[in-house]
Amino acid sequence: MLYCVDVSKVKFSVKVINILSGNCDKTKEHDKALAVVGVTGLVKVMYDGFAKLYKSPLKTFSTEEEAKEWLISL
Protein backbone atom coordinates (compact mmCIF):
# COMPACT_ATOMS: atom_id res chain seq x y z
CA MET A 1 0.00 0.00 0.00
CA LEU A 2 0.98 3.61 -0.52
CA TYR A 3 0.30 6.09 2.28
CA CYS A 4 0.24 9.87 2.39
CA VAL A 5 -0.15 11.22 5.94
CA ASP A 6 -0.51 14.89 6.90
CA VAL A 7 0.81 15.45 10.43
CA SER A 8 0.94 19.25 10.29
CA LYS A 9 -1.64 19.61 13.09
CA VAL A 10 -0.39 16.76 15.28
CA LYS A 11 1.04 17.70 18.68
CA PHE A 12 4.00 15.35 19.02
CA SER A 13 4.75 13.59 22.28
CA VAL A 14 6.36 10.32 23.31
CA LYS A 15 2.88 8.74 23.30
CA VAL A 16 2.19 9.85 19.71
CA ILE A 17 5.59 8.63 18.54
CA ASN A 18 5.01 5.24 20.18
CA ILE A 19 1.60 4.93 18.50
CA LEU A 20 3.02 5.82 15.08
CA SER A 21 5.89 3.40 15.54
CA GLY A 22 3.53 0.62 16.65
CA ASN A 23 1.28 1.16 13.63
CA CYS A 24 4.27 1.00 11.30
CA ASP A 25 5.37 -2.27 12.89
CA LYS A 26 1.90 -3.76 12.35
CA THR A 27 1.57 -2.73 8.70
CA LYS A 28 5.14 -2.72 7.35
CA GLU A 29 4.85 -6.08 5.58
CA HIS A 30 2.03 -4.61 3.44
CA ASP A 31 3.52 -1.14 2.95
CA LYS A 32 5.14 -0.05 -0.26
CA ALA A 33 5.89 3.55 0.78
CA LEU A 34 4.92 6.24 3.26
CA ALA A 35 4.92 9.96 2.45
CA VAL A 36 4.61 12.27 5.46
CA VAL A 37 3.51 15.89 4.97
CA GLY A 38 3.85 18.76 7.43
CA VAL A 39 6.95 17.68 9.32
CA THR A 40 9.25 20.53 10.34
CA GLY A 41 12.07 21.33 12.73
CA LEU A 42 13.22 18.74 15.25
CA VAL A 43 10.31 16.46 14.41
CA LYS A 44 11.61 16.29 10.82
CA VAL A 45 15.01 15.22 12.15
CA MET A 46 13.27 12.48 14.16
CA TYR A 47 11.28 11.30 11.12
CA ASP A 48 14.37 11.25 8.93
CA GLY A 49 16.10 9.07 11.53
CA PHE A 50 13.06 6.80 11.77
CA ALA A 51 13.05 6.45 7.98
CA LYS A 52 16.43 4.74 8.13
CA LEU A 53 15.00 2.06 10.44
CA TYR A 54 11.75 1.62 8.51
CA LYS A 55 11.92 -1.12 5.86
CA SER A 56 9.68 0.54 3.27
CA PRO A 57 10.56 3.93 1.75
CA LEU A 58 9.52 6.74 4.08
CA LYS A 59 10.06 10.36 3.08
CA THR A 60 8.97 13.73 4.44
CA PHE A 61 7.54 16.54 2.31
CA SER A 62 6.50 20.16 2.69
CA THR A 63 3.38 19.83 0.53
CA GLU A 64 0.81 17.16 -0.22
CA GLU A 65 1.41 17.65 -3.95
CA GLU A 66 5.12 16.79 -3.61
CA ALA A 67 4.24 13.74 -1.53
CA LYS A 68 1.70 12.47 -4.06
CA GLU A 69 4.11 12.99 -6.97
CA TRP A 70 6.74 10.92 -5.15
CA LEU A 71 4.27 8.12 -4.39
CA ILE A 72 3.08 8.02 -8.02
CA SER A 73 6.69 7.80 -9.22
CA LEU A 74 7.31 4.57 -7.29
Brief summary:
The protein has helices at residues 14-27, 41-53, 64-73, and strands at 2-6, 33-37, 58-61.
Question: Can you describe what's shown?
Answer:
The chain has 74 residues and is of the alpha/beta class. The protein has one domain. The protein is 50% helix and 19% strand. It is built from three helices and three strands. It has helices spanning 14-27, 41-53, 64-73, and strands spanning 2-6, 33-37, 58-61. Strands 1-2-3 form a three-stranded parallel sheet, sandwiched between helices. The relative contact order is 0.23. The model has no long low-confidence stretch (mean pLDDT 81).
**What's the structural domain tally?**
1
- Biggest sheet overview: 3 strands, parallel
Beta-strand content = 15-25%
- The low-confidence runs, each spanning 5 or more residues with pLDDT under 50, are none
Q: Provide the helix percentage.
A: 40-55%
Characteristic key phrases:
74 residues; 3 helices; alpha/beta; three-stranded parallel beta sheet; single chain
